[in-house]
Amino acid sequence: MPIDPSVAVGAELGQTSFSWESSDVLLYHLGIGAGADPLDSRELRYAYEKDLRVLPTFATVAATMRASEPPRVSFPGIEIDLAKVVHGSQSVTAHRPLPVAGKATASSRITDVFDKGKAAVIVQETDVTSEDGEPLWTAQSRIFARGEGGFGGDRGPSERIDLPDREPDVTVSTATLPQQALLYRLCGDRNPLHADPDFAQAAGFDQPILHGLCTYGVVAKAVTDAVLDGDPTLVRSWSARFAGIVLPGETLRTKIWELDGKFIVSTESVERSAPVLADAVLQRV
To answer: Where is the MaoC-like domain (predicted)?
Structure first.
């Protein structure tokens, strides 16, 4: 059985120690499209070490920046073919501004496994602390394993967030590059779904698609630039559900509503008029 919830739920996945340098942060920021205007001082906060500030979504790659092998979905009670897996949702909460370089320890666990009928949803949570034991960030990811549901488990809670019944306060268009996935995969995600046309077709896609976490970072940056004057240190948390794929080279249209001190976000592909991110919320410090 690929998934055994009785074994998986609550399983501790151990601790991982890792480090990063400013060059890792710079590469990540370039991978999500920073530096498009190299004369813009706000862009240089992401792309030049002189006044480098770290977008909290860097947390999603900090521990795996130097990975050179495709990831595996292999945990206690869980063994799934990578071709069946898509990212469901992601959240990152920064407990303080992320340092441009540092050493840290990540502690991960499986907190839930949900049964969506045709798919299973695996919820993983990770707490990261600095060398001196201070909390840096907490991340939660949900991955969909297609064809692995139907085991009689709980469907899990709804993550739906209703959009305000009015025009957005801000709308932003962000272009992605045709080679965006090839660049972003250097941040440690070597899943061939994002580079190999044959693998992508075998997984049911017409062509390689952009990493969900790349889209997650691209949109986080777009919102930060639009409503926080391009200062990523003001981002407290960012969460989003992956509602559809992005093809490298597409333009993203992001709608932003300010509501009760937070920003509600929805993103779609301009070319396909198709949803990309939904139920997304950015909270500021």
So the answer is: 164-272
Residue type, 217: G
Q: Are 189 and 213 in contact (CB under 8 A)?
A: yes
Are 177 and 31 contacting, i.e. CB atoms less than 8 angstroms apart?
Answer: no
Number of domains in the chain: 1
pTM of whole model > 0.90? Answer: yes
Range of the domain at 173: 5-284
User: Residue 39's domain is classified under what CATH number?
Assistant: 3.10.129.10
- What whole-number distance in Å separates Cα of residue 180 and Cα of residue 244? 17
Structure token pair of residue 205: 């896609």
Beta-carbon count within 10 A of 80 CB: 20
Mean pLDDT by groups of 10 residues along the chain of 285 residues: 80 93 98 96 96 98 84 79 80 98 96 90 96 97 86 85 96 98 95 94 93 97 98 98 97 97 97 98 97
Please give the positions annotated as active site.
Answer: 189, 194
Chain centroid, CA 19 distance in Å: 19
Q: Rounded to an integer, what distance in angstroms lies between the CA atom of residue 281 and that of residue 81?
A: 31
